[in-house]
Design a protein that fits this description.
Helix 8 packs across helix 13. The chain has a six-stranded parallel beta sheet, with helices on both faces. It has two domains: 165 residues, 3-Layer(aba) Sandwich (Rossmann fold), CATH 3.40.50; 181 residues, Rossmann fold (3-Layer(aba) Sandwich). The chain has 15 helices and twelve strands. Helix 8 links the parallel strand 7 and strand 8. It is elongated, with a radius of gyration of 22 Å. The protein starts with a strand and ends with a helix. The chain is α/β, with parallel strands linked by helices and 361 residues long.
Amino acid sequence: MKTILATIEFPPSVGGVENYYQALANNWPDEFIVLDNNDNKLVSKRWPFLKWLVGFKTILSAVRSAQPDWVIAGEILPIGTATYLASYFKPFKYAVFLHGLDFSLATSLVWKKFISKKILQRAKLILCVNSRTAELVTEFIGANDKVRIVNPGINPQLPIIRPELMGGLKANYDLAGKKILLSIGRLVKRKGVANVLVVLPEILQINPDLRYVIIGNGPEENNLKQLLNDPVLQGKVFLLTNISEEEKWAWLELSDVFIMPAYEINGDYEGFGIVYLEANLFGKPVIAVRSGGVSDAVVDGLNGRLLEPGDASGLKQAIIELTNNQELSSKLGQQGKARALTDFSWPNKVNKIYEFLKNNN
């Protein structure tokens, strides 16, 4: 089964969607052609309007040349528009990927909503990376017969971390005998890091040996630094930016509990949260909030705690529980590791997509 993936989000650019499509290309069991935008062949930088028209030409040319069984549009806008139009000039079956925010943006304006509905109605399959997006799409087009859910996968191989790096971090941050709460992610409001800082002073009264490490970059950085001016948090919360990949893995190994209480803001929600599974892979329990696609990654009582949005009391109790109850923490962490290895391997996820397309040939 010959397949073409057309996407503007592909390496060498970096991100969760890019990782998803790279894994798709690496694990596809049959002929797989990637049309990316590294040479501006899908979206023109020179055209002031209708920048996707160059993509229409590229996709149509590729279809006529390769005669694929399927074309997959990596983004509903603008790649879906180019794919939709090309399918009228040279009929072919196409599927559309949706991750979360892309769908919210595609339905944010009347004209975008109109063309998005046309694209999805003509698509043979709609591939959603989380159940929340699948629900919204089903409601939007009034049918679920062609909506499929395929969560992201994870690399099961733990990275090699130099022992001297681990020792250096412990010494530099005086972590001997301390419990470490860890957050990793882009520093934006919806990630919920500020909510952790709000409840942390009360927790530190109960557990003064707790340390909170925040890793990331983003527009929320200055706001978080303001919150860190609280004397109670001085020396007990560390905000780290621009760290190396190896340091990220080292902190996951050093941590006791991972937390990212992300929540939805104006249609912007966590599409899945692969970092929850990365933490589980290290045997760490996670704390999250039921929002967007997070409930696909975190199952309450299985691999961590899944809280309701706005539950500050529950957030505080979950942190206290998992940092004080070592037996429960280890149990949830090990269950999460087993689940990550069995249910979220990339070959299995990619094969699921392959079978969806194959069965709809």
